[in-house]
Predict the structure of MUC2 protein.
Amino acid sequence: DFCGDKDSGGSFSIITENVPCGTTGVTCSKAIKMFLGKTELKLENKDYKEIQRDVGDDVRYWNRTVGLYLVIEASNGVMLIWDKKTTVFIKLTPDYKGKLCGLCGNFDDKSNNDFTTRSGLQETSALTFGNSWKQSSMCPDVTEEIKPCDVKPHRRSWAEKECSIIRSEVFKICHSKVDPLPFYEACVHDSCSCDSGGDCECFCSAVAAYAQECTKAEACVFWRTPDICPIFCDYYN
């Protein structure tokens, strides 16, 4: 919430540090930095460490483990839920509605203005929007969107077959409530990306993202099986 005229007076920020995943150049969030007043929490390698800084207010926080997830809950109304791998959920109290900025949008429940750059301009290009929020000027701008299924065409048929679960009878009760197509396309993209050891991780995270939206729309789907992503301890289930 360090936005606009509150640029120096916010109470929290959350930053992902990206590490390449696979050989296609696509990145997965592998480390997260959470700033709460004077406290910096760095989440990586399935754990977190606390660093005290000289600036900011005192913000209390609690941590707990729920199933596979590490949950950090702070006194300022911010909650971060991390699966200790590639998935991060950020939950906030309604006081923050419309007051945020960054890659997740401004939290006003409207998606058409989420591509707002660091300088406050509304952008249509995802690349320009993303480049504006990089933390370090030493990082070069991304100039073209990587299409991992084109880079690794042998992965496409496997990804399309696996991700078809999103459009199948398994999720039928959710299809009328949450459009499956963008989640299917994201699943294929991610499943093509992770081509060196993390293939199941990326596929399962992508399907779980759709399942989470279904749960929020009151269409709870039990999609995991002993053969498909056999972890039954989803935070949202």
Remarks:
- The chain has two domains: 12-133, 148-217.
